[in-house]
Design brief:
With 202 residues, the protein is α/β, with parallel strands linked by helices. The protein has a single domain, classed as Peptidase C15, pyroglutamyl peptidase I-like (Aminopeptidase). The protein is built from five helices and six strands, in the order H-H-E-E-E-E-H-E-H-E-H. The strands form two sheets. A four-stranded mixed sheet has the order 1-6-2-5, with helices on both faces. A two-stranded antiparallel sheet has the order 3-4. Helix 3 packs across helix 5. It starts with 9 loop residues before the first helix and ends in an 11-residue tail after the last helix. The N terminus and C terminus are likely disordered. One of its GO terms (biological process) is proteolysis. This is Pyroglutamyl-peptidase I. Pfam families: Peptidase_C15 (PF01470). Its EC number is 3.4.19.3. Belongs to the peptidase C15 family.
């Protein structure tokens, strides 16, 4: 959706390009545009998680400050005081009443970032721990909470500052592919049986 004074939201243009490019045949990619509105996020995200039951949700948003494709490590619960596109702000200034202050993604974004760099992608990628306390952060925390941390957030710069929609879409393709591969490794680790020391009772 349009964001502030920007008529074109680079994140949606990048996601549309990702949809055109696709992922591997084994990945069922669903794309959804979400309004820059707190109430829309609050109402829509639970329905999407329930409907699709995804292995991983990757939110993508535009940041005026970004000059790289930025991988956000965590979402924050409180500090939401800026008005959305409808002039609304949550009265509690938080995502989930009583929820933890921050929720970390199940994915190590530094590891994802390194894997993307190793791939030879010609788009700069970095990691952040502050998604901005606006709709991006609000969406991210909400999905982390709903999806037991199986979520990621990617911030992209405005179009042509310095990357085109095609370059951003290609970057998303590489980033999401690496995230899914790393998530598979995480799941394998979680499924490995623990081997506590043998205890004999006499």
């Amino acid at each position: 959706m349009p964001f502030g004074d920007d008529k074109i939201n680079s994140s949606w243009e990048a996601v549309k390009e990702l949809k055109r490019l696709g992922l591997s045949k084994s990945v069922d990619l669903h794309v959804q545009e979400i309004p820059v509105e707190y109430e829309a996020v609050r109402d829509l995200l639970p329905l999407l998680w329930k409907q699709h039951q995804p292995k991983l949700v990757v939110h993508v948003g535009m940041s005026w400050k970004a000059t790289t494709v930025t991988l956000e490590q965590c979402g924050h619960n409180t500090g939401y005081e800026r008005l959305d596109n409808c002039g609304f702000c949550p009265a509690c200034h938080c995502c989930v009443k009583g929820g933890p202050d921050t929720i970390q993604s199940v994915l190590d974004m530094e590891a994802v970032c390194q894997r993307v760099r190793d791939s030879g992608l010609k788009v700069a990628v970095s990691v952040s721990k502050d998604a901005g306390r606006y709709l991006c952060d609000y969406s991210y925390y909400t999905s982390l909470y709903l999806g037991e941390r199986r979520c990621a957030f990617v911030h992209v710069p405005p179009l042509d500052k310095p990357y085109s929609s095609k370059e951003l879409g290609t970057a998303l393709q590489v980033v999401v592919t690496e995230m899914l591969q790393l998530l598979t490794k995480v799941e394998r680790t979680e499924k490995q049986p623990h081997n506590p020391s043998c205890q004999h009772h006499h």
